[in-house]
Design goal:
Blueprint (H helix, E strand, L loop, with lengths): L2 H20 L15 H7 L7 E6 L9 E2 L15 E2 H11 L11 H14 L7 E4 L20 E7 L13 H16 L6 E5 L9 H14 L5 E7 L2 E5 L9 E5 L4 H4 L2 E2 H9 L7 E7 L11 E4 L8 E2 L5 H9 L2 H14 L1
């Protein structure tokens, strides 16, 4: 962590210390790990953190994602020998093999653990994850769009192959988007006019940093209560030195737009501002991130790993909840007050 980032982190800790002193609370020696149960956190967290946001990621933050050289082995619609991202291809193999949905409903646990089994059988080490703003019963039915989302369904789908980059060119991201688009249209009823596609194929809108940001801003601005949003990103992901001291590992996760060499990356902090802060109440949003280092790119507090190590979704043990709350809501003091009141009532 750089000098200025250390200063910012120290400033956050000092601010929290002063707030806790004002409230008559003792210090907290562990700044990075949640000290509350799920029930305690749910009772005391700000209302802004009750939005319906979920993310499926292809791997943990420290892992890289991978391309599948031939998606025909995954029984995807119209594979034509093209490559596809391992996460997207595996998910569709479970949910939409041969363009058919499973006869029986599958739970979140079953889908993620089956993804891991299929990835492992193909010698892929990545572990799929589900994260959420609110706790999810992972033994309930898996669905990209819940039955309660009865309004308009909109999607932004981004596939970047980085054509001509050497090294760095990918081969499966366009196919990821086209296959997933067919799935959400056929199974979930998304309409063509409500799907925005950005791909570097010379046909669709170019996935530049500005265009991606504009697409995200637009879909959030259009959303109304009971609507559903689906975000799909297939491309490069990366890690950058944290520039504001809110990451426990010292790194921000980031998306890599087509023009990253001239205009830079889209950090997880940017995604906060674009997607989380301004999402209207009552809107359901699911994001599928098929890229490297994507495990916590939205920094959602609840986490379930599809590797058989968990039986339920829990608070992410590596998340700095205080920094998360202050950054997203600016209500750290209110949270600590509620936390103190809850502890005194026990």
């Amino acid at each position: 962590m750089g000098f200025f980032n250390k200063l910012k982190e120290a400033a956050l800790k000092e601010a929290k210390k002063k707030i806790m002193e004002e409230l008559g609370m003792g210090g907290d020696d562990d700044e990075t790990k949640p000290t509350m149960t799920t029930e305690e956190f749910e009772r005391t967290k700000p209302d802004e953190l009750r939005k319906d946001i979920r993310m499926i990621s292809g791997c943990q933050d420290r892992q890289t994602s991978a391309d599948v050289s031939n998606v025909s082995s995954f029984q995807l619609p119209d594979p034509a020998g093209k490559a596809g991202g391992a996460c997207t291809s595996t998910l569709l193999n479970i949910l939409y093999a041969d363009e058919q949905v499973p006869e029986d409903d599958l739970s979140f646990v079953e889908v993620l653990e089956e993804m891991r089994i299929k990835l492992k059988s193909g010698d892929y080490s990545q572990i799929p994850q589900l994260s959420s703003m609110n706790p999810i019963d992972v033994n309930t039915k898996f669905d990209l769009v819940p039955d309660t989302a009865t309004g308009t369904k909109r999607a932004v789908m981004i596939g970047i192959n980085y054509v001509g980059d050497d090294p760095g060119e990918l081969s499966g991201c366009w196919n990821d988007v086209l296959n997933m688009k067919k799935y959400i249209q056929d199974v979930h009823g998304f309409e063509e006019e409500n799907i925005v596609i950005l791909m570097d194929d010379g046909i669709h809108t170019e996935p530049t940093k500005a265009n991606i940001i504009d697409a995200y801003k637009t879909i959030i601005a259009q959303a109304e209560e009971n609507d559903a949003i689906f975000l799909h990103y297939s491309g490069h992901g990366t890690k950058l030195r944290d520039d504001d001291g809110d990451e426990s590992d010292g790194y921000d996760e980031a998306l890599v737009p087509r023009d990253f060499q001239t205009n830079g990356m889209i950090r997880d902090d940017d995604l906060y501002e674009l997607l989380l802060k301004n999402l209207p109440d009552g809107v359901h949003m699911t994001s599928l991130m098929d890229c490297c280092h994507s495990g916590t790119i939205l920094d959602l507090p609840y986490l379930f790993k599809g590797d058989g190590s968990q039986t339920e979704m829990t608070l992410d043990p590596n998340m700095n909840l205080d920094a998360f709350i202050e950054k997203l809501t600016g209500k750290l003091m209110e949270f600590l007050q509620a936390k103190m009141a809850a502890s005194l009532s026990l």
